[in-house]
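Example (one chain per record):
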Amino acid sequence: MVKRVLAVVVFGFLFVLSGCGGPVQDDIVNYINEELKTAQTLEDKAVAAYEGVAGVNYTDDQTMYDAMVNEVIPNYEELLTELENVSIETDELKEIHDIYLSGAKLQFSAFEKIVEALEKQDSSLVDEANKLLEEGRLQIEDYNKKLDELAKENNVEIEKE
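Predicted structure:
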């Protein structure tokens, strides 16, 4: 009988803990569900436009240039503005968000460098841009990993699309 009562008390306590949101938990939920909505849409547009003209989808410099100038850079510029204006309450999440912002800034610099490379027809600038893209990608991967860890520590489930 004592074991059953203890089991009910422990279960009830765990249920209450997972049901109560602390400041970090609340901040993560707001950050993902509200603060990043527009940013995610802008990033998706920019990345899709870039992928549509880069790598195996590359057709010619003019097509790439037009996509970079008319779609990729404007969307990414707006993304950076969104990321800089995100409202974050807790230091733990702020540190992680700053990694994302830094990675996004590197990606943006790379996109600008690609435009410069196309204008100057300078393949060494393309190499520089690719290095910046890789650095940015690694930082954004680090951001995602750390955000997942913080969410897990705070009983927040992040649904991946």
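Caption: The helical segments are 2-19, 23-35, 37-51, 61-84, 91-120, 123-153.
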